[in-house]
Design a protein that fits this description.
With 127 residues, the protein is mainly alpha-helical. It has six helices and four strands. The protein has a single domain, classed as 5'-nuclease (Rossmann fold, 3-Layer(aba) Sandwich). It has a two-stranded parallel sheet with strand order 1-4. Helix 1 packs across helix 2, helix 1 (5-12) runs parallel beside helix 3 and helix 5 crosses helix 6 (93-105). This is Ribonuclease VapC. It holds the Pfam family PIN. Belongs to the PINc/VapC protein family. Toxic component of a toxin-antitoxin (TA) system. An RNase.
Amino acid sequence: MIVDTSAIIAILRQEPEADTFSHLLNDSPAVRIAAPTALETYLVAGPTRSVDVEEVLGLGIEVVAFTEEHLAVAHHAHMTYGRGSGSPARLNYGDCFSYALAKVTGEPLLFKGDDFVHTDIQSATGT
């Protein structure tokens, strides 16, 4: 399973989806996050909470290097589903990283919100 910033932030902030997301992470044999998505997570959480590398890695999440293949897929995601593309997904810069890792690996994506439901990425929640 690939995890997006939105899911990690929901867990760290104990949002309503936190328990469901935590169970999905714990039940998955492998959980990965793109390196730029990990950075986004630290930056998003930073103003309201001190989040360090050990805390995210302590969730059992493997940080995956972002390659040229990921870059090409992320660019495609932006052109197809990004803000300004006309797609209802309106993926932002950070979303494109999660999209790319999920697309390249073929693994479902754990996320919060309704942006990725308008793409061709499989949701880890089954919705």
